[in-house]
Amino acid sequence: MEKRVAILATNGFEESELQSPKEYLEQQGWTAEIVSPESGTIKSWTNGNWGKDFKVDRTVSEASASDYHALVLPGGVINPDLLRRDKKAVQLIKDFFEQKKPVAAICHGPQMLIEADVVDGRKITSFSSVKTDLINAGAEWVDEEVVVDNGLVTSRTPNDLPAFNKKMVEEIKEGKHELQRA
C-alpha cells in the first residue's frame, strides 16, 4: 500500500537528514513531500556551509496531518530554531500526535517535539546538545542509535541514518499507534 509522508523543514536543515530519509521512503514506493513555511525552495546545510536547494511540495498552510501517514523532522541547528517560531508548523506536529500517526525526528529535530509539547514521559534520543532541553521537558533521554517509543522514532546524528530510516519505515508500516499521544 502506498504511503504519503510529510517531511517538515525550512532553510538550514541538515542535508543528509532530509535527503536520506526521503530517498529511503521513496525506495519503498511511497511519496515523501517536503512541507515548509516557505514556498519554492529551501536551502540545506552541509559540512558547515549552505548546501543544495530542495523543492517544497506544500506549504505548512496547505498541509494537513490527515493528508499523510507519517511525519519526518530532520535536524540541523538552524532548521528547528526557525520552525519552532512558526505556530502552524508546531500545530501540524501536534496534529500528527493527536491522530496517533508515526513521527520520526533526528539530531536537532526533537527540539520541535519540545515546542509541540509531546515529549513528557517519552523515551527519546537526540543530538547531545538537545539532551538537557528534552529532559527539562519531561523526556527520558538515552544515548542510543535509534529509539522507538509508541510510534515516535528518534536518532542522534547523520551516522545513525541507516538505523533511523529502517525503524521509521517499520513504524510507518505498522500504521497508527494507539499509545501515541499529544
TrEMBL record:
Keyword ATP-binding: no
CDD domains: GATase1_PfpI_like (cd03134)
Protein name: Type 1 glutamine amidotransferase domain-containing protein
PANTHER family noted in UniProt: DJ-1 PROTEIN, PROTEINASE
Superkingdom, natural source: Bacteria
Family: Belongs to the peptidase C56 family.
InterPro entries: C56_PfpI-like, Class_I_gatase-like, DJ-1/PfpI
Pfam name, any one: DJ-1_PfpI
Lyase in keyword set: no
All copies of domain DJ-1/PfpI, residue ranges: 3-171
Keywords tagged on the record: Glutamine amidotransferase
Ranges in coiled-coil conformation: none
